[in-house]
Amino acid sequence: MPATGEDQDLVQDLIEEPATFSDAVLSSDEELFHQKCPKPAPIYSPISKPVSFESLPNRRLHEEFLRSSVDVLLQEAVFEGTNRKNRVLQWREPEELRRLMDFGVRGAPSTHEELLEVLKKVVTYSVKTGHPYFVNQLFSAVDPYGLVAQWATDALNPSVYTYEVSPVFVLMEEVVLREMRAIVGFEGGKGDGIFCPGGSIANGYAISCARYRFMPDIKKKGLHSLPRLVLFTSEDAHYSIKKLASFEGIGTDNVYLIRTDARGRMDVSHLVEEIERSLREGAAPFMVSATAGTTVIGAFDPIEKIADVCQKYKLWLHVDAAWGGGALVSAKHRHLLKGIERADSVTWNPHKLLTAPQQCSTLLLRHEGVLAEAHSTNAAYLFQKDKFYDTKYDTGDKHIQCGRRADVLKFWFMWKAKGTSGLEKHVDKVFENARFFTDCIKNREGFEMVIAEPEYTNICFWYVPKSLRGRKDEADYKDKLHKVAPRIKERMMKEGSMMVTYQAQKGHPNFFRIVFQNSGLDKADMVHFVEEIERLGSDL
Amino acid sequence: MPATGEDQDLVQDLIEEPATFSDAVLSSDEELFHQKCPKPAPIYSPISKPVSFESLPNRRLHEEFLRSSVDVLLQEAVFEGTNRKNRVLQWREPEELRRLMDFGVRGAPSTHEELLEVLKKVVTYSVKTGHPYFVNQLFSAVDPYGLVAQWATDALNPSVYTYEVSPVFVLMEEVVLREMRAIVGFEGGKGDGIFCPGGSIANGYAISCARYRFMPDIKKKGLHSLPRLVLFTSEDAHYSIKKLASFEGIGTDNVYLIRTDARGRMDVSHLVEEIERSLREGAAPFMVSATAGTTVIGAFDPIEKIADVCQKYKLWLHVDAAWGGGALVSAKHRHLLKGIERADSVTWNPHKLLTAPQQCSTLLLRHEGVLAEAHSTNAAYLFQKDKFYDTKYDTGDKHIQCGRRADVLKFWFMWKAKGTSGLEKHVDKVFENARFFTDCIKNREGFEMVIAEPEYTNICFWYVPKSLRGRKDEADYKDKLHKVAPRIKERMMKEGSMMVTYQAQKGHPNFFRIVFQNSGLDKADMVHFVEEIERLGSDL
Q1: Of A257, B46, B155, B464, which one has the greatest count of Cβ atoms within 10 A?
Q2: What predicted TM-score, i.e. pTM, was given to this entire model?
């Protein structure tokens, strides 16, 4: 395509771009080389408006676009997307969203102008999970320091498996995992650990390590000729325990669910009964997964008592503190996880209470070397033993991924930015907000707590609209109340004013679960949530 | 701490920041509210120099820092980090790196100035995997469009499991996975699929789906009472097949490794022998994992023939095209994967040949619904069935993760930017470079090919230093040659001039494997690699 006008200038600029290192090499040695190799083609070809296909950043071609994109992101996603004056989302039904956004990909190349429009639409129609009024999940917030570190990770595009490819991140993981183990209470921070893509996978690693320790032959021989392995977790535990037990060939039936008390905590006497039952059945109990911070209620299983049981029956104690682990950095609240230092393994996701960007999940182990023992296959092409540096820093063979993102940087950088004291203040403020919100609704007509005294920062409650108040004894009360939360949720989604989730559990009608992690929220926000739910449900 | 001078102004600014929505609500209804709830504390507290602990971006506090950070990243990582004039890495031994960088985290909060210094050090001492001379792994490049999309993903911080939380990314995944299936050749693009954190996990999903289809009871009951499951893959296949088979309770011994021919392709007659052997043993063969683009040699297993065998024995055919899948977008090169449309499942990582940022991996299935059937647990708190929208868009129960990054955006955005034609040009250029490089070394003294005619863009070769030339028949030739690649690798790492890996395989002494994905490379770069290796090894 012939270049014209402005394009021609750009082409000229590109052609005149200073010689690269390879150019220099080429000219110094050119004649000799051309005796042996075909002549190289010119480096640059004319650039027309649509973007080039080449995967190498070029300042002249890309800097303006990159900066304009950052402008869009800072303005629309980071600042306006977290501004209380703006909506959390612009709800669109799938069909409508398909009309508003051209999702098709098999077209011609785009121009930078078109791409900026595309980018704006992606931001516009995405839910602003960093918005103060997004209290829908066990994650929220767009932490500015976490964000910078994510952006750095992307710009460096590393994979953490060998020291030669990821020197900084290998050492950084070592430090952060050790510090986290020390906070858990493992002696001297010793043990093992891994950053992995989400708490579910972390729980899966725990099952795998427990199983390996129980019977190392499993790694080679598999489960088919073994006794039936059984593990125990509470009925309120995260679904990943079942899911990963199934994935790992143990089967969901062999996850024995232990009853919880009215506040959602594992009933230890039932645990003992179920262990005894499994033994009577001739099965092989090998692991208990306690939960520190359940998904819905935010309950903490009694770890000390469970640890005693595990000790007696020689079972691996895993603590799924994906959600609750954040409380460990607070002197005031870490008592919730009392006994966690007795665990064999702990899942702790800094992307939940500590608001590191998605995903930042860890499995921490009290035992050294178990990850590698359970998972290594010694791939010769990646983990060569004749390297010139100490290959103990090639950590990649201990995980089940091959390439692995450097999820450590975001958390390390946030920690560096705020200090341990800052993380502690963050956690304490989130607890204060949750306490304040609880106090608000406890004394307010139309609100009713599901758990009178929440242990954590999930608050479960019903909003009882005026038409249902004082009618608890009527036969259809529960059915009617069951429909309230979904209707209010629909309204808040369609207005985009806030996002909070609901669910039924244990025979209860649907109730709201509001969850706090964002320390940028304040007491006025708590009041806002109360009033917004009242406003949305006023006519129900 | 009392605020002074500039800080005082900032505090004043913050206090005067326009009232938020919650302020507005508060003032309109204030009196009524305070009858029922405690009085909220003031929103802002004085800001001293060290950063605030709060997880909410604030334009006044953070914009300058965010923009300065982007400046560092664009300058040092994106542009200078990929400039041929600069080094690929600054090698430091672990101990030295620990001295140069303060990895410690348990200190006080930092200032923005300190954090910028920290950020610069992270960039400085990280390997520049986007540098044209980083040809060490099956990934490289920092694609500018992929990068923008990653930055957008981070700014939005989504998790792809429900339509309510990730409307844009749910629909985007649907489109991209369908298009990828169509390119694979699945009829009408129909089937199932998932973006997952790396090709190893994708291969793990394939094993899980194959196993579930073989015997759906496994999901609930596990493997303990079943016949011994056996799967087959070549001895050159990626180690993740063994690793995930072990993780999933099948055991590494039950991955039967099939011989490869001299060019690294699965020997189909040996496959048949091994299937027959497993049947004689009373085991239960259920799956073959063929490889399209092996890790070291870049070989393509003969999929058509393997598909015939799978059809005969009723085995699930998986094709691990994590690395080779990129060739499918090229009319010229897709013949390498002939027959892939007969696969039951395909792993294809756009983060490899197509240079999407890490991680962007997919599992594509010819069968609809199998992922959910194999993995769903119907968690009631997340996948409520009484939502106001069509819950078929809540895709999260089909994967084993709970939270899941929106890895689709980067690839979708690159595809949108370059068009399918751009992706094709990218692939064709990478092949051309590989071909050119091969031609260079074939005719050059001191270089010897491991595989005379490479099928793909991994080129395996020895550099034979002058002292060893013409001495092939001597007894210690192989031992001496074995030490050459590690020594040259050490030198290039210490100089930071390039990065290419080496390994021994099949009794061969260590050989180099150079891998191309970055279409920003040109023929002059190919010449540079040849000459750089000669320079580094000239005195050996």
Answers
A1: B155
A2: 0.92
